[in-house]
Design a protein that fits this description.
Oligomer: single chain
Helix content: 55-70%
Radius of gyration: 18 Å
Number of strands: 3
Number of helices: 5
Largest sheet: 3 strands, antiparallel
Order of helices and strands: HEEHHEHH
Amino acid sequence: MEFLAMALFALGIAGADQITKLLVINNIEMGATVPAIPGLFHFTQVHNIGAAFSILQGMRWLFVALFLALTAALFWEYFKKRLPFTTLERWCLAAIYGGGLGNIIDRIFRGYVVDMIAVEFMDFPVFNLADSFISCGCVLLLFHLAFFNRRFWKETPHASDG
């Protein structure tokens, strides 16, 4: 039941991401700026053929392969060799996966990722909803692993240590 709930959460994230991208594609011309909250952020349509900060441009199939490897690793971990993740950490993984799924859909069907959120209070690359879930999921996961999940870092005793 937990796996199904997390899978639906990830699919919901990817779906919401795709809806926001379609809204931008259909309502904002490429490079145009639409104010949202002055001084905080605005919307603009940008196409990114790379990863974060436009690194690895043009490596679409590498990203697809990495996403498939992540999918396999998550299934293996969940169904075969469960690591001592807490429930919160598993929800973080679902958020990261959902964001990745939203972006991989773009890469496969469009050949690029649609970005649209441009912050105004600092110099930062344009990003999308999927990127937000990936980033927030990673930060929360790492923070929780570092400060609250001591079981994850505990070494497993070896048979020869006994």
